[in-house]
Amino acid sequence: MKILEAQSAQLTNYEVFTHLTELKAKSNARKGNRALGRAPGNLETVVKEILDYFYEAPSPLGSKPFPYDSNTIKRLLARLREFRLTKAEIIMIMNLRPTKPENLNTIIEEMEGRFDDDQQMAIVAAIAEVLGKPDGEAERQAMTDNAKEARKEKSDMELKQEEVMDIDG
Amino acid sequence: MFILTKIADLVQIHPQDLEKSHAQVIEDNINAKYANKVIQKIGLCICLYDLLYASDGQIGNGTGLVNINVEFRLIVFRPFKHEVLTGRISSSNDLGIRIRTHFFDEIFVPREMLPEGSYFSRDDQNWIWRTESDDLLYYDNQETVRFRIEEEHWFDQTPIGPAAREELGTGAAPALKSPYTLVASMEDAGLGPCLWWDGEEEEEGQEMVEE
User: Fold this and answer.
1) Residue A128 CB: number of other CB atoms within 10 A?
2) Which residue ranges run through the membrane (chain A) (predicted)?
3) B101 and B54 in one domain?
4) Which range (A63-77, A85-99, B157-171) has the least confidence?
5) Cα B211–chain centre separation
6) Phi-psi domain of B86 (left: phi exceeds 0; alpha: psi -120 through 50; beta: other)
7) pLDDT (tens digit, 9 = 90+) per residue, B7-18?
8) Around Cβ B166, how many Cβ atoms within 10 Å?
9) Which end of chain B has fewer CB atoms at under 10 Å, N or C?
10) What is the ipTM of this complex?
């Protein structure tokens, strides 16, 4: 193995998402084909885990209607050109879809110094125009449910372990 | 969050795989070798992105293996410094908060990178932030949080031979650390549990309706 170029490009989550869904469809089509067999197990594991991550609130990839298409990046760049944001900031805006100044603040460095309130609102409006707005209520509900479910699973598991220990004892 | 890395490598095709198309076998071999594994100073490899070059296959003497030199690009998880990501709190102790995503578990927020006024509650076993207005905000387990990447740490897991180990003076093999860990912060406004920051607008809107 020889590394030719440690970092030849940066990808947005949407690009990774499209690649992985295609990959998944391809590996599903292999099922039952004896000559091809299954895709490597470690690949199936990581693809499933990342897709789970992408579908989980508050990721825009899991929201409806689906906010991205093949022209989204172009449109976003065109709308945000006047604000002279860095590449890293654009990537994070693509991935996280901040729709409020408080959220934008974490992404844009020195935001208060670079943009006044009107400009901040203009950036947020431009993002909402291209990527749409999340359904805040549903998103929060999903996050709360996810947390509850995970906590329950954990306590169930602990209970089970205790039972097993009782039987052993 | 994700980057492309260009790598050159040798792929060996076993005779029993010759029924598949070459492109498919090469892809499978690369994925089997790299997917879900960490390369030092590169990141966590996800999967093959595209194949750039493949040489003619050459059969080695004595084995039936077809040797092919390939160049390809991999999708790699490697967040840049100061990138903001989301994940979930998996556990807390008095040193800080541990965060995980579905595919990556090794993210740690040390206590000094939490907002001022945060303390660890031994009764609840989680962190609490006492805000300036004396409200208590809880960092509950499994809560979805937003955090900013500050540092990355690499740990080479290459085993040390017995002779080298004796030189180091440690008798037993040292405990293996994770090959790639991230340190994050949740200090600034907008970071921390998403529910703290995302809820406000809605409430204001409701008040206005009531008026």
Assistant:
1) 15
2) none
3) no
4) B157-171
5) 47
6) beta
7) 999 999 998 888
8) 11
9) C
10) 0.85
